[in-house]
Amino acid sequence: MRSIGFLFREFAHGLTQQKFLHFTYGAQVTISLLVLGIFFVLLVGAAVLWGKMGEQLRVHIFLEDNLSDASVNMISDQLSAIEHVKKVTYRSKEEALRIFMEQNKSMSLSDLNMDNPLPDSYIVDVDHPSNIQAVVDKASQLQGILNIRYGQQIVERYIKILMLLVGISAVTIGLLVVFTYSSINNIIGLSIYARRNEIRIMQLVGATGWFIRWPFLFEGVFFGVIGALVALLILALLVSLLGEAVQISELSVAMPTMNLSGDLILAALGLLLLSLGLVIGFFGSLNKVNAFLNREAESQNAALRMRHMMK
After folding, report:
1. What is the pLDDT of residue 251?
2. Which of 85, 115, 150 is the last residue of a domain?
3. CA–CA dist 241, 260 (Å, integer)
4. Using an 8 Å Cβ cutoff, are 183 and 32 in contact?
5. Three-state DSSP class for residue 288
6. DSSP 8-state secondary structure symbol assigned to residue 131
7. Separation between Cα atoms, residue 308 and residue 152, nearest integer Å
């Protein structure tokens, strides 16, 4: 118990050294994790929007005229058997005309009642937007298909934007992890430099390497976790404000199923940031302390060799 108390006293003593520089590097850790969290939220938002967009993107498959009921039913079975197809809905030409007239009330379409030019069709729901093209390719091979329409340009453009966002986010997150690691290294380097004489005294009285390391490991984990908590609080506030902005704007009509303030997103974000802060803080400080202890060991060995040579 005395050893544990001593380690925590050493940890607390380290926090009181070079307060301004500790605050500066701690702020760098917080800002790095904050920006990392923002990119994480952007990626999650893009993925959620991509999924919701897929629910609204449907494949419209128009049938040839004069098909028998058996042929129409067979096409339905064939479409349902295609991989990634969630639902197949039949729309008759009469229903299609009614919907068209409701959407174009300003137009005079009474003459079309005598000769309906619209074909029968199937509306196909796909499980994910990335699978739409595969479903279209297989459906186009079926007999009795007149034409197939879907938001091809929208899908392709959004896939390009999403891939670009994923690439930029991955590179940025990687750089921020390196930057956070470097900041933790600098913090521990300051503490080691300020207490280098104490470390040498502990080595002379027989302190083990891990007994020397633990106060610095506590310090690195402390700055990593505190930085993650502050970043998480700021992000929770931003996500909450963004969610409220969506609810009171016209975007809520366009995205009625988007829940930008979801507890699940914040929970995942909190787990990510705390894990990163803990891991980067621990290994960043461990690397710095090991480097110092290795240099000290080399210096002591060099001094011993000099003494032997002088003898």
Report:
1. 42
2. 150
3. 10
4. yes
5. helix
6. G
7. 80
